[in-house]
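Q: Convert this sequence to structure tokens.
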Amino acid sequence: MRSCRKCLLPEAAPGADLDAGGLCALCRHPRPDTRERAEALRLAREADLEHALAACRGQGAYDCIAPLSGGKDSVYLLYKLKVEYGLRVLAYTTDIDMGEIAWANIRRTVAKLDVDHVVYRPPMDFYRRLFRWLLMNQEARGAVHTISYVYAPLFEGNALALAMEKGVPLVLAGYSPGQPIPQRMEYEFPRLAISKVDWTPPELVASGEFSADDLHRFWNPARYGADARFPRYLAPYHAWRYDQDATMKKVVELGLIGSAKYASPVFSNLPINWLLMYSDLRNFGYNPYAPEFSDLIRDGKADRRYWKLMGRVVDFITLKKIYLGSHVKHHMQWLGLRDEDLRITRPSRPEWPAFVVDDWARAAPAADLIAAAPR
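A:
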């Protein structure tokens, strides 16, 4: 498959529109004010973040909770919060399908920084049934989106519940720019989404395959009463200047991660992601993470040469189910699935109700800039 010669966006990706010279539409027609507006937006978010980090001190048992997945971004975020900002941080991990490299990174970081760390290990039977049903009933955007935006709300909700239990005012996630999709979160989860919306996916309710106890695992603010005070949930890398390659080098230099290999998202990824990539490569013809990395390359935040090689390698080993791609075979056996079971059967659904989206646009830091910023 062809890809953009400048940012590596695959030809099959929506909106790529490669020309005869191999340039995608985004590289052919960059908005002249894009960088200026993006920087103004980043500065507005950074000011809000600095205020939030100062205001969180001393309000609860900890100043903040930092979900720790073992990837470079969550590891470096924990370092910055503990060492550079001097905050009382509680690291938090939901142990679902964590790979050995991620666990090695987690153990090393927690020991090096000497922070409190909570690990929650839910029963695997629920997740096995959940992943199996979702992969056999994918929404239109494919396996990565289908699984990620049901799986992520589970551990995000776990972090919110822990913050409520301990009276912590702030949850800080190591999402890099472009994660998650903008319709779900840009810098901050919509406050009405945290305080007014039941996160239980309606497709799971309608399926009849999941019990009340299963569905109770999703965040629902109604359980806390009308007078509850909910934490903010922010993504600092959406506010700070971000450089993927510099972050990979920094965590190794600091001794938080043992090697450059262990700092790479290719190696520290959740093992089930290999199956999700496999499904999307088969159904769409391109890696679902490629547009995200193309955005970083266009913005000068990721190394084009590295991802030109690594992208091809990842796609090859995924489709051939070899090396790290052998996780595809393992997870298909675990879930009892065949290639023909990896099906798209449902349309896409909105990330949040309309009243949440409207309020989010009005209430976000520098709302006018956010509304004007390019998507």
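The CA atoms of residues 65 and 90 lie 5 Å apart.
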